[in-house]
Amino acid sequence: MVQSQIKILIVDDDEIVRDSLSAWFKEDGYNVDSCENANEALKKISNTNYDIYFLDIKMPGMDGIELHKRIKNIYPDALVMIITAYASVDTAVKALKDGAFDYITKPFDPDYLSHVVKNAVKQKILTDENLRLKESLQSALPVPEIIGSSKKMQEIKDSIKTVAPTNTTVMIRGESGTGKELVAQSIHLQSERKYSQMVSVNCGAFSESLLESELFGHEKGAFTGALYRRKGKLELADGGTLFLDEIGAIHPKTQVELLRVIETKEFTRVGGSEAIKTDFRIICATNSNLEEDVREGRFREDLYYRIRVYLIELPSLRERISDIPELTQYFIDKYRRKMNKPIEGITQEALDLLMRKNWPGNVRELENAIERAMVVSTGRELTKDDFYFQKDEESQISSGLTLADIEKQHIITVLKENDWNISLAAKILGVDRTTIYHKLKTYGIERP
Question: Quick one: pLDDT at residue 108?
Fold first, then answer.
């Protein structure tokens, strides 16, 4: 940025001051304008965004402090210099706290003024470069696409747009495989925290002690095996978003500690004594009925209300059957590129099969089924024979089984086809291992 591109506005009721400053700045090659009062200045800035402003504190009518506030409301990045007759004036110090770049005292030293403006120009260049970098980063951080045109999914997308720009705590509720983490990512990447990371913790994957260390970190020697200091997720999420999946699995003791962090914005590492400040937004997810957990004393009521400020409830795939064709084509396109296979679509007969299926694992299970079908397919379209469950599905439909019977039989079929490998079956069904074990217990399924 050359000096002739820098626009300076001088606002002072003293004509001699205006003329002197204008002459010095023009001699340095800047583009200079001036006026004698705040009202005239406001008219000028309504048409022109100046880079640097020199404002006298004492002026008839609106003073320089109030004018400074008005300018900042219109141009938050404006660089404002306060002109005062006394360096220790309280209002000048207050102006600095309110965002003024600097203040200068009368009488003026031309060399010092040149130095102040050069520093302001450097600040302007850095601010503009930072803005360009943020815009570039924004384009490199695409918001994850949420597929579905059904009424329920349109409501979800509207909810995300509403809550994302705020710092409000969000609870996402839905069955396994409905896309809770995808929604959390979408909220994060449409928020002001998008330039910092979203840190995810699956609370159901850790024991009480391990989850405490995972969240809070620990000091060296805090427990057996703690050979070095480790930062926890709370610390890593500073400035960003903390996503707590399966929050209903948190032990009561850890619930108390988490509530304290939410309220005070500080914590201590396990085995430590230093209070660590942190600033993060919480998005949590659950597939359980937390209200029932609260009533039965398994989940703290005060924590529940702190995390359930804004609730987004995700529908199961069974509640959005009309989205299956769109989701299917999306996954076909995704895996066609990954597998480099010439599969372009799906036959109507195969699509009808997908539309009839129960999908206990929801969208995750649908995606896994399509990926598996594309592995075995040899044509340009997926057919019903490419789906491992088609024969079982047809027999279930004709037999008049209940929804629970169909789910039970489907789980058994997948387990049998994979030699009762729980992990592999969970991946195919699009659920976690805990859900599989729960279903086995619910339906009384025993391994032969």
Answer: 81
Instruction: Classify residue 249 by its DSSP letter.
Output: G
122, pLDDT greater than 80: yes
Distance CA 113, CA 117 (A): 6
Q: What angle do CA 252, 254, 260 make, to 5 degrees?
A: 110
Q: Which two tokens stand for residue 232?
A: 């926890």
Q: How far apart are CA 303 and CA 292, in angstroms?
A: 14
Distance CA 183, CA 186 (A): 5
Quick check: do 3-138 and 318-443 share a fold? no
> How many CB atoms sit inside 10 A of residue 140's CB?
7
- CA-to-CA separations, 299 to 119, 258, 305, in angstroms, rounded: 55, 12, 11
CA 321 to chain centroid, in Å, comes to 28
Contact 185, 228 (CB under 8 A): no
Single out the residue of 230, 201, 200, 202 nearest to residue 217, CA to CA. 230
Give Cβ neighbours of residue 403 (< 8 Å, ≥ 6 apart).
Answer: 358
In angstroms, the Cα distances linking 222 to 160, 226, 228, 232, 296 are 40, 6, 9, 13, 34
398 exposed, middle or buried (CB, 10 Å; 0-12, 13-18, 19+)?
exposed
The fold of 318-443 is: Helicase, Ruva Protein; domain 3 (1.10.8)
What's the pLDDT tens digit per position in 369-390?
Answer: 999 999 999 889 999 989 877 6
CATH assignment, 151-315: 3.40.50.300
Whether residue 4 is predicted with pLDDT greater than 70 in this model: the reply is no
Read off the pTM. Answer: 0.61
Q: Is the confidence at residue 215, as pLDDT, over 90?
A: yes
334 torsion bin: left (phi>0), alpha (psi -120 to 50), beta (else) = alpha
Fold of 3-138: Rossmann fold (3.40.50)
Q: What is the DSSP string of 371-405?
A: HHHHHH--SSEE-GGGSTTHHHHHHHHHHT--HHH
Per-residue pLDDT, averaged over 168-196, amounts to 93
The rounded distance, in Å, linking the Cα atoms of 446 and 3 is 80
> For the chain, which residues make up each domain, given as ranges?
3-138, 151-315, 318-443
How do residues 296-325 score in pLDDT, each as one tens digit?
A: 999 999 999 999 999 999 999 999 999 999
Q: What is the 3-state secondary structure (H, E, C) of 319-355?
A: HCHHHHHHHHHHHHHHHHHHHCCCCCEECHHHHHHHH
